[in-house]
Design a protein that fits this description.
Layout: E1 33-41, E2 44-50, E3 63-70, E4 84-89, E5 99-104, E6 110-114, E7 123-128, E8 132-138, H1 146-159, E9 162-168, H2 176-182, E10 189-191, H3 199-205, E11 209-213, H4 220-227, E12 253-256, E13 262-265, H5 279-284, H6 287-290, H7 309-314, H8 320-333
Length: 338
């Protein structure tokens, strides 16, 4: 019996999993509905969607909350509270349903921070599309932290959004010293205390998207509960030993104001890294000092010897405390102490 001879035509090659032609053309999702991200929790995004249907608690007639996940096609693109997104899938908002976020619209602004000053410039988006940053700080219990305030002002400057100082607990200490410290920067401020009128603060917030940021224990959650009665944000007392507050807000959430506009409450922070922001941007956030850097030598770090800012301050063009604050920021970015 003659043995059969085989050639290449008899060999079958099973196609691999990656043999399908790949394309960069992605679906346009013209039928996607628009949503506003109001909360983020462990990979799930709560989005406010307008449309038919009854309003839920805290929602206007025709609005509904839709829980969604990020579509794989978005890759590693981050989504934060304040983002405007496009959703497909089950957008009914019914219990146990899940939609997909397939597009993040262009942002008007993005507030960012680094985890710390040695974070290799890795920026962490906090909130998108905000109009202003409300820096909440107590006048006492715990005492003000000007260095933290300065950092937040720099972050707001980098994001190109307005800043507002909200000084709480004025029944415990006067605001004069902290107000005088920031007078050269012309940062607007409001002074409040528990149980007092919030009318002036509301005027700054109405019809705007405002981010409330402050370290733990300054009374931010109490303030949010007064502005939005059904917010139910948890509050806690300041530790009598450490002088620090406990984190009561665990994630950012957007809340609609009864008068119009939104406030975004963020978790209390104990650090506000600026590693992602250049030295030039940090200096530019101090308009009372930036003109004095014109006479600085090339490559000046503005940290001491040879810096023209000392002469600028001695000539009375700026306050020494502002220069000290700037140098603390710059030194911390270099991992040194000012």
């Amino acid at each position: 019996m003659r043995r059969r001879e085989y050639d290449e035509d008899d060999v079958r090659v099973r196609p691999g999993r990656g043999s399908r032609p790949r394309t960069r053309i992605r679906p346009a999702h013209e039928s996607a509905v628009e949503g506003f991200v109001v909360a983020v929790d462990r990979g799930r995004y709560t989005c406010l969607v307008s449309g038919d249907g009854g309003g839920r608690r805290g929602r206007r007639q025709g609005e509904r909350d839709v829980v969604a996940m990020k579509a794989r096609e978005l890759g590693r693109k981050g989504i934060v509270v304040g983002d405007r997104v496009a959703l497909v899938g089950d957008t009914s908002g019914n219990p146990d349903t899940l939609a997909r976020i397939v597009r993040v619209e262009e942002r008007r602004s993005i507030l960012r921070r680094s985890a710390d000053d040695t974070d290799d410039g890795v920026e962490r988006p906090i909130v998108a599309n905000a109009d202003q940053l409300v820096i909440v700080t107590a006048l006492a219990d715990p005492p003000p932290r000007p260095r933290m305030i300065d950092r937040m002002l720099v972050a707001a400057f980098d994001a190109e959004i307005d800043s507002l100082l909200c000084l709480t607990k004025s029944d415990l200490a006067p605001p004069d010293e902290i107000v005088a410290l920031y007078a050269p920067l012309e940062v607007p401020y409001v002074v409040v205390h528990k149980g007092g009128s919030l009318d002036e603060l509301r005027e700054h917030l109405v019809d705007r998207i405002s981010v409330l940021v402050g370290h733990s224990g300054v009374g931010k959650s109490t303030l949010v509960n007064a502005l939005v009665p059904d917010a139910n944000r948890a509050v806690a007392q300041v530790n009598a030993v450490t002088g620090r507050g406990r984190h009561t807000s665990t994630s950012a959430v957007a809340l609609r104001l009864p008068e119009g506009g939104w406030i975004i409450d963020t978790p209390g922070v104990r650090s506000f890294g600026l590693a992602h922001i250049s030295t030039e941007t940090v200096v530019a956030a101090f308009p009372d000092l930036v003109e004095g850097t014109v006479e600085c030598p090339k490559g000046c770090t503005h940290l001491g010897e040879g810096c023209a800012l000392d002469a600028w301050v001695e000539a009375g063009h700026a306050d020494r405390a502002r220069l000290d604050s700037l140098r603390r920021l710059l030194a911390s970015r270099e991992g040194a102490e000012a």
